[in-house]
Amino acid sequence: MIGDTKTLLAHWDIAASVAENIDRVQRENVFGKASRSRVQDILAIFRQRYLIEAAVTKALVTLGRGTFSAAALDKILYFHSARADQLLYDAVAEILVPQYAQGLVDINPLNFQRSLSKWVTEGKTAGHWSESTIERISRGLLAALRDFGVLQGVINKKIAPLFLPVEAFAYIMFYLKQHQPSGAKLIELADWKLFLLERNDVERLLFEAHQHELLEYHVAGSVTRLTFPAGTLPEYANALAQR
């Protein structure tokens, strides 16, 4: 729902509350959907993904309205979506990452479904899923990962070549640093697996972001210093949007 997400960001009033914005979006039917219940379903998903943290909402509105790279924004939307949806997160971290590590990029839908079935058997899901439910959820996950650029291919899907725009990387690094102030530990966070990144990939992107003056990154022995030219996420998003 990347298109609908960007429509929401374009119509969002950061001066109003989340409830006020949602009420107005429903009244004005900005998505052009025929069913009111469908609009409510979409807004519930948006609330979970992007509206819990006020700073994130403001940052995304800023990025969505500026000249910020569409490809970079898509990766940021994917990042927040995966962190808000444990099933999406685990599908990448526990299914795609091990497969990618073995050099296997082609996605076998049946094997993907078997992984979900194993989670059900092990009691890792909220309840029991029927085979039809597992198949439906599997299709939805694979479609979402394709739309976010993690996978490619309409029918025969495969893991897409590794690509994370440096601007998106810098935004994500800023966000994560608010939760993990240690620069050394930031590089090791499991969240980078969402982009199939290894430690050396994260370090390479840090140096690239430093060269683009998106942040300052210095390493001296065991000491790591990572700083940004802004104090809050919305401020940093504004700086990125103006580049």
Short description:
With 243 residues, this protein is mainly alpha-helical.
Walkthrough of the structure:
It contains 12 helices and 4 strands; from the N terminus they run ααααααααββαααββα. The protein is mainly alpha-helical. The protein folds into 3 domains: 1-52, no CATH class; 83-159; 166-241, Orthogonal Bundle (Arc Repressor Mutant, subunit A), CATH 1.10.10. Strands 1-2 form a two-stranded antiparallel ribbon. Strand 3 (216-220) and strand 4 form a beta hairpin. The chain is globular. The mean pLDDT is 90.
Q: Strand content of the residues, in percent?
A: 5-15%
User: Level of helix content?
Assistant: 55-70%
> Helical stretch count?
12
Structural class: mainly alpha
C-alpha Rg (nearest Å): 19 Å
Tally of distinct domains: 3
Series of secondary-structure elements, N-terminal to C-terminal? HHHHHHHHEEHHHEEH
Mean pLDDT: 90
Q: Note poorly predicted spans.
A: none
List the helices and strands and how they pair.
Layout: H1 2-11, H2 18-28, H3 36-50, H4 54-65, H5 70-84, H6 86-101, H7 109-121, H8 131-147, E1 151-152, E2 158-159, H9 166-179, H10 183-187, H11 199-211, E3 216-220, E4 223-227, H12 233-241
Helix pairs in contact: 4-12, 5-6, 5-9, 7-8, 9-11, 9-12
